[in-house]
Specification:
Layout: H1 7-29, H2 41-66
């Protein structure tokens, strides 16, 4: 960052990086992002996509629980 960057901008950048690192760590530790042992690029992408979908699902339910809302596991038909 430029030398004249404000302290507020630096703090925001550090926090954004920390949030990103925490998400990546959770994807690896809890959702198996680092357990792929396949050989193809397509397989790796599919594995990463499934881990990210699971992460989004857990985040959605975690935020809803924090707000005190109930979220169905399946969409209403």
């Amino acid at each position: 960052m430029p030398a004249d960057t404000s302290l507020r901008a630096l703090a925001a950048a550090i926090k954004a990086r920390w949030v990103c690192e925490q998400a990546h760590q959770q994807l690896k530790e809890e959702l198996g992002l680092d357990h792929f042992e396949g050989c193809s690029w397509t397989g790796l992408h599919r594995h990463a996509l499934m881990a990210m979908i699971a992460y989004a699902f857990l985040q959605t339910h975690g935020l809803a629980a924090a707000k005190g809302k109930k979220t169905p596991l399946r969409p209403a038909a």
